[in-house]
Amino acid sequence: MSQFPLISVMTFLPLLGVVLLFFVPKQSHSAQRGLALLVALATFVVSLPIVTGFQSNAEFQFVEKVPWIAAGPFQMNYHVAIDGISIWLVILTTFIMPIAILSTWTAVENKVKEYMICLLLLEVGMLGAFVSLDLFLFYIFWEVMLIPMYFIIGIWGGKNKIYAAVKFFIYTMVGSLLMLIALVVLYFKGGAGDFSVLRFYDLALDPATQTWLFLAFALAFAIKVPMFPLHTWLPDAHTEAPTAGSVILAAVLLKMGTYGFVRFAMPLFPDATAQFTPLIAVLSVIGIVYAALVAMVQEDVKKLVAYSSVAHLGYVMLGVFALNQQGLSGGMLQMLNHGVSTGALFLIVGFIYERRHTRLITDFGGLAKQMPIFATIFMIVTLSSIGLPGTNGFVGEFLILIGSYESELRWYAVIGTSGVILAAVYMLWMFQRVMFGELNNPKNQTLTDLNAREIVIMLPLLVLIFVMGVYPTPFIDKMSPSLEKLIVHVKSKQTAKAQIPQIPAPQALPAAVLPVEHK
Amino acid sequence: MFEYVWLIPLFPLIGVVINGLLGKKIKNETVIGGIGSLMVFGSFLVSCGILIELLSRSAEERVFEKVLFTWIKSGNFNAEIGFLIDPLSALMIMVVTGVGFLIHVYSIGYMHGEEGFYRYFTYLNLFTFSMLLLVLGNNLLLMFVGWEGVGLCSYLLIGYYFHKKSAGDAGKKAFVMNRVGDFGFLLGLFTLYWYLGQNHNVWTINFRQLAANAHLLPVGGVVTVITLCFFLGATGKSAQLPLYTWLPDAMEGPTPVSALIHAATMVTAGVYMIGRLNFVYIRSHETMMVVAIVGAATAIFAASIGTAQNDIKRVLAYSTVSQLGFMFLAMGVGAFTAGIFHLMTHAFFKACLFLGSGSVIHSMHHALHHAHSHDDPQDMRNMGGLKKQMPITFLTFLVSTIAIAGIPGFSGFFSKDEILWQAFANPLHGDLNIILWATGAIAAGFTAFYMFRLVFMTFFGECRIMEKAKSHLHESPLVITFPLMVLGLLAIVGGYVGIPKLIGELFGGIPNYLEHYLEPVFKGSEEFMAQQLAHGVAHHSPALEWGLMGTSVVIALIGISIAFFLYVVSPSIPAKFTAAFPALHRAVYNKWYVDELYDFLFVNPCKALGNGLWKGFDVVVVDGVVNGVAAIVKGFGGALRNIQTGYVHNYALTMTLGVVVIVAFYLFR
């Protein structure tokens, strides 16, 4: 612990903001907003040395480890570190927070102080969850993160906020409880020691135990992702949450699920991973196609974007479970891309909602004429969302598909690829109905184009869309070694596959069409 | 010069940045249009330099790769941003930048006074950039970037008049249809990459490396799958059966766009792609046959629709679909050079035809506007006799029409006749040859008919425009007629680079320059073909070739004569004909109801399915379960009801529950 505790400073800096917020008078809303923004920006700045100081190898870096709780047989450490898997997710979190705070600068006028406290607490929870290497610590942060989100939806949400918040709460509770139980079981299986996930990595669990524990963890994570058919909380939560809530939910919170698979479920239970890969691939592919079809017929723009999230995360899961370099890199990259693009989409929906107080597609039409800057930005983000080459969305999607095509998930990749058609259909159709056509609704004829604050919010996202699309190398390079280590770890720990009953993969086409030659 | 190849796509990209970011402030149309055009002209100059250097080199040294940087690298996958120069790409960049430049210039005149002038030139430059990436990319993925990029620009430019619903619809349709094709392209890429890697440890998507390792690919089998997937991509981009329906609708865009994107360049990308991957295609006899059949079928199918359209641009659109069919026919019979040859000549005469129609529409629009009429300026039934008012437009249009009809001496004759001859003489498809040739020949007859029908309806006979508007008809300004004249000239002389051996010998042994020029690209495939068919190559006599050539010319003349008879001599007959066969006319006029069929088969079921899944599964099944749980929880505790007021309470509840579980586990273990 000789070095500067960079991770802790970053993680708990927002907490300092929370404390300071208590001293700001209740009525001075702009001071509260300014303080929260300042703290979020400071957190982002503090997180930058992580990128510059990170060595592109597979080791955990910036490690901090101190004993924390020792109660009976339980030994919990405060153990945090960064590796190639978490580095960009951490940066994504600190990057998106100032944007989120700015997004509801004027929209939230009620209980601003509490709102900002919730946002900052949320950031602590998210950052903590990404950096924790102690399973118990991870669980604490996981809970810390969920509760502010629940309030953000329930208090500052839209018309149906109670319903959405309760739904979010029920889903989340089920997942959290299962994970907690599995965590405790895992601890006892592991014999005396601490909760370090690194220690658990080396356990040799019997396949049956792995199956049950994997199921418990996977369910908690799958709800978060969300994977089909556990996704129905998402459209409601997104629709009702204020813009900042939606942005954070999409950009970061959902990644908690996919991150959970990569960091915990897969390396902890390699045999179970192999066993459930076909099932997860099936659900991912169903998610891609299903969510796209449902997104197509949505009448509410925000719901449409929410369903598109389900489809995008389906890609991520497919890539992650391909368990090869391309698939995993693509999956990790797509997590970031989705954070950027879908985050931007929710901001865009927020912009028009603030102006018109409606999100129904039929209430719009012809906005491109009235709001040219908005139209251009919306178009770029839409294209990024449908994965047009040159934008970030393409690189991730492509790596996922080629990775899963190379793996045993070939036929799933084929079906997943058809998602590129559907994505174009639902996004462009929505764009057309909102932006193109005659501007004949009188209420739309007085709309104003984006103001300076809104352009400033969008600008960094737009830059990232192109940078990550044209030059993704630095992003991939930093994560590659850790992913390689993970692949080797999981594959080497998988016991002879013959002993494990494989869930048969559906044969989409007769094998004769595509001769598979294994040499 | 080769080292500077990256400048070619860079110039238009600079144009995009300048006009895209500052165009709105610049406002001055001359500056905006000038920047856009000059950028493409810059690319054209560099392209010329590259072609000159290429020609000065020996045949073996005509391939060059310039890699800028690594784009995506992950595991064994590596895609670069790099450019490939070879005779094929050098020819393509000449066509793209040359024709592209002329159309940019034309657009300055044509788009004068349009709202969003800068937006138009931004898109047009972006298109040129993407097309050049597509053509110059040194690997499949970079080609795909251009491939999708041109699709995007097509979408943006078709929807240029976005306030019109039909324009928005057409743009979306084009993009989605293209994406169906892109799905095929991606699968082809995956399979090719995976197959070579998995079985031969050659993990590459680089064109030169693929070509060098082509011998590792089997004949047929997986190669058939790969090539058919790529071909699906080609049918989307190049508007072939069954994915052609977007192209006629794409005429919603400004006319110069139709000329550049939907005639001369983008839609030929599929043909180019097969040319680029000829070494893969040649290894699947089945795919070659599919390509040939689809090409021939599209050629005649689209030509049949073209005979009954009244919108001047729609006729040209179906004509384009049909001509692309000819190109694919050529590729499918292994006559790669002939296909690329027709691609080039078609770029000249079809661009000229579209720009000519634009000139007509421009004039019609003005005249009707002055007369306060709402008649359709694109409907040929409102035109007639325009050759007096618009002599330059008429002359260039006529020249190009003669070229497309395949009259000897004009560019289209050389390329189309080469295709028809190869369709007949090629040794690949056995007895299918006769059918392929006959289909092509009949389609050529249709082409001559509907094109001359167009010319006669537009430029000959009585002027059918209302009297008030007549005096406002006038020839277009030089900025519009200049490109027409250049392209008209090319439509005549463009074919002399590829004079068939038979005719060349007649004139003292003029060689077929184009064949010679493209030989390094297609030699491998031709040798492979010869090797495969070593025993079965039939030798045809010159008499037969002359005979077929004569036949196709006669068929074209018959088509022209019928058009002359029906639309000049006794214009009352067509109406009687439609009255006699109303059902047939309706079917042809309504494009054989293919759009309606697709709506019925794909669009509506998808929407119904989406709605069913959402309202059926999501809302009823999943949420039913969740809400059931919620109701139970509420029934037991009632704590969840007061979220808004009692949130501290709930927070505590969660944490307590967690602690209880831990403790319980510890105690009851």
From TrEMBL, chain A:
Where is it found, in Gene Ontology cellular component terms? endomembrane system; membrane
Top-level taxon of the source organism: Bacteria
Q: Which GO terms describe its biological process?
A: ATP synthesis coupled electron transport; electron transport coupled proton transport
Among Pfam families, the record links this protein to: Proton_antipo_M (PF00361)
UniProt subcellular location = Endomembrane system; Membrane
Which molecular function GO terms apply here?
A: NADH dehydrogenase (ubiquinone) activity; NADH dehydrogenase activity; ubiquinone binding
Instruction: Write out the entry's keywords from A to Z.
Output: Membrane, Transmembrane, Transmembrane helix
Please give the start and end residues of each transmembrane region.
Answer: 6-23, 35-54, 85-108, 115-133, 139-156, 168-188, 212-234, 246-266, 278-297, 304-323, 335-353, 373-391, 411-431, 452-471
Boundaries of each NADH:quinone oxidoreductase/Mrp antiporter transmembrane domain copy?
132-421
Membrane topology value: Multi-pass membrane protein
Q: What is its main location?
A: membrane
Q: Which PANTHER family match?
A: NADH-UBIQUINONE OXIDOREDUCTASE CHAIN 4 (PTHR43507:SF1)
- Alphabetized NCBIfam families for the sequence: NDH_I_M, PRK05846.1-3, PRK05846.1-4
Q: Which family does it belong to?
A: Belongs to the complex I subunit 4 family.
Protein's UniProt name: NADH:ubiquinone oxidoreductase subunit M
Species, as recorded: Geobacter hydrogenophilus
Q: What is the lineage of its organism?
A: Bacteria, Pseudomonadati, Thermodesulfobacteriota, Desulfuromonadia, Geobacterales
**Gene name?**
nuoM-1
TrEMBL record, chain B:
Q: Which residues form the NADH:quinone oxidoreductase/Mrp antiporter transmembrane domain?
A: 138-426
Q: Which residues cross the membrane?
A: 6-23, 30-52, 81-105, 117-136, 174-196, 216-236, 257-275, 287-308, 315-341, 392-414, 434-456, 477-499, 546-569, 651-668
Top-level taxon: Bacteria
Task: Using the record's annotation, list all stretches that form the NADH-Ubiquinone oxidoreductase (complex I) chain 5 N-terminal domain.
Answer: 71-121
Q: Which InterPro entries does its entry note? A: NADHpl_OxRdtase_5_subgr, ND/Mrp_TM, NU5C-like, Proton_antipo_N
Q: Name one GO cellular component term.
A: endomembrane system
Q: Which GO terms describe its biological process?
A: ATP synthesis coupled electron transport; electron transport coupled proton transport
Q: Which GO MF term does the entry hold, naming one?
A: NADH dehydrogenase (ubiquinone) activity
Q: How does it sit in the membrane?
A: Multi-pass membrane protein
Q: What is its main location?
A: membrane
Q: Which UniProt keywords apply?
A: Membrane, Transmembrane, Transmembrane helix
Position of the signal peptide: none
| Pfam families hit by this protein | Proton_antipo_M, Proton_antipo_N
Location comes to: Endomembrane system; Membrane
- Note the Gene3D superfamilies from the entry: 1.20.5.2700
Question: By what name is this protein known?
Answer: NADH-quinone oxidoreductase subunit L
Native source species: Geobacter hydrogenophilus
